[in-house]
Design brief:
173 residues, alpha+beta, Signal recognition particle alu RNA binding heterodimer, srp9/1, 2 domains, four-stranded mixed beta sheet, 4 helices
């Protein structure tokens, strides 16, 4: 099987998505947007960066493609030959895909803060820590520095911090 890493998570729109990276001569990555009780949207990224979106794919055909020994052959057999409507999309950023794969394979941690909500997730997007706490940007950066000091690779995103001197709740993590 040519799967390198697989992750079932939510995308930025809050939709369930199955993300899979492959070791294949043709296909680098795919994601399948999983709508409950509906046909799926499949996005396939090739090793040259070109990407295509296939619409209304059956879950059976998607799983046959995803779990095949050869994604190139399976794409032809289970997706293209079935006549699914498709569109060519803008080329994917391969460096970003490779970076995310490396980050996830090496146990990276996602650290997010937005307007009083602090969240840490592991490389499979499982919540490690979630707190309602008011933080300054400096406090957020201190937490991130401490994690990096013990060897953790981080992806951080912080916004809507409180200002120094603002009333904040001092809650321990």
């Amino acid at each position: 099987m040519s799967k390198i890493f697989e992750l079932y998570t939510k995308n930025k729109k809050g939709e369930d998505v199955d993300k899979v990276w492959f070791q294949s001569s043709n296909v680098k990555y795919c994601e399948c947007i999983d709508y409950d009780n509906q046909l799926k949207t499949l996005i396939v990224v090739f090793n040259n960066g070109s990407q295509y979106k296939y619409k209304d794919v059956s879950v059976t055909q998607y799983l046959l493609f995803r779990d095949a020994a050869s994604q190139g052959k399976a794409l032809n057999e289970y997706i293209k030959s079935k006549g699914y409507e498709f569109e060519k999309m803008e080329n994917a950023d391969l460096a970003t895909l490779d970076g995310e794969l490396s980050f996830r394979e090496n146990g990276g941690i996602f650290v997010f803060y937005d307007d009083g909500k602090f969240v840490m997730k592991d490389n499979k997007d499982i919540i490690i820590c979630e707190r309602d706490v008011k933080l300054t940007e400096a406090a957020f950066n201190t937490v991130c520095s401490a994690l990096e000091a013990v060897g953790k690779q981080l992806y951080t995103e912080g916004k809507n911090f409180i200002e120094d001197g603002e009333n904040r709740e001092d809650k321990p993590f």
